[in-house]
Amino acid sequence: MEVQVAPLRAWDDFFPGSDRFSRPDFKDISKWNNRVVSNLLYYQTNYLMVAAAVVSIVGFLSPLNMLIGGTVVVLVFMGFVWVSHNKDILRRLKKQYPTSFVVVIMLSSYFLISYLGDVMVFMFGITLPLLLMFVHASLRLRNIKNKLENKMEGIGLKKTPMGIILDALEQQEDSINKLADYISKVKE
Asked: What global pTM score does this model have?
C-alpha cells in the first residue's frame, strides 16, 4: 500500500479555544492512549511542522550537535524496534507499556548523546518537539473527522508516516484486532 501524507489541519482545528481541550482521565490509561494515538494520526502533519520549526531553530544554532543527536535517536529507535520484534519479552513489554518503551529509547539516546556531544541540543531539539506533541495529543479532544480518519488508517484503507511509526510501536494492532473481532461477530 502506498504511503499517503496526511493533510495539514487548519490552525483553528489544531489549536482551537480551550473548550476543545481537557485533561485526560489518568485512571483509564486505555482511553488516554486511544486519544493520544488518534490525535497523533490526525494531526501528524501539524506535529511535523511544529517539530520542524523547533528542530530548525536548534539546528541553526548548533548544526553538528543536532545532526549527531538526531542520528543517535534514530539509530537507537531502530535498534529497540528490531530487538523488540525479535525478543518476545521485549515485544510484550513494548505492547503493554508503550510510553515506557519510548522513555527507555529517549534515556538511552540521552546517555549516548551526553557521551558524544551537547545534551542541551538533545533536550531542546529532539525532546521538546516530542513533549509538545504528546501534551497536545493528550489534551486535545477528538472530533468526528478525527475518529473517521483513524478508522480508515486502522483498517488499512490508508497508510501514513505516523501510522508506520505507531505500527512499529505496536499501537494500532489492538484497534485492528477489535475491528476484526467485531466484523466476525456481525457475520455470525
From this structure: 0.65
